[in-house]
Amino acid sequence: MALDGNAIGGLLLEIFAAEMTSAEATCAACGAVRPVAETTVYHRGPGTVVRCRSCTSVLMVISRVRGLNCVDLSGIEVLRVRPASG
Amino acid sequence: MAGTAVRRRLSWVVATVATVTDETDSVRTIALDLPDWPGHQAGQHLDVRLTAEDGYSAERSYSIASADGEPVAITVERLDDGEVSPYLTQELRPGDQMEVRGPIGSWFTWGPHDGGPLLLIAGGSGVVPLRAILRHRQRSGSNVPARLLYSSRSLEDVIYREELDQYRGNAEVRYTLTRRQPPRWDGFAGRVDDAMLDRIAWPASQRPLAFICGPTRFVEAVAELLVARHYPESRVKTERFGGA
Question: What is the model's pTM?
Fold first, then answer.
């Protein structure tokens, strides 16, 4: 069952050391811009696959290999992350 | 609150169970003792990690049920084929410990500065983060108008019913019961549809802010109905959960 980007907020915070669910991702395939929270996430299986909610293209794949998080971001053209304030 | 915005490493910490409260036959609220909790925003979640004696561990995400400033609590629904929820809802006792990390999330969150009017739509245990939003709204003295439409199988399955019924005029709470309605039920029945939204959804011209939380299919159906009512996508915040 598909979830959404909220479900991987913890994983992304672990990888990027920043709150990523409101970061905006531009899909490299269709150009749709959405917050990571509103992407489609398949979280079961050997890794985590994040897809564009508009065109279903793969935006991001996160797999854990021998204790390392490997992140393929080739489906994202631009990722806009708001700097932490406070 | 300010602490939640600071960039920080996300690390697992040990939480001690303070209290457990049965909400329904299959749902339990677990209040945690977390001495160094940095505070949180309404709508955020935390991750829980349980590790068995043989080293096997399982992680799950749970919405935070409490408002900032209250003891951190999660509300867990038991899924009989689940790996984690039967333990959390049946075995766990005050004084037990578990690892947690959080708070997590910055999109599906609400604070008084985000305004409204608020339209909160919950399917089943999707009411948990929306309850945190209502509590935070009340504690912060916000006068943002708020309506909650809560879809539940039956009245017995409604989580936080006593609390939600107390809002009365302050926030409008309506239930729709999808499987079973008590005799003389005068609330809604069946799945969330356009006729219900005609009664409860703020017109798009009022620039409402909508939060929808529930199972994936529920969230997608409701979000579609709201977008068809000209709610801008950026004002329809969604959170989907699956069984775990």
Answer: 0.94
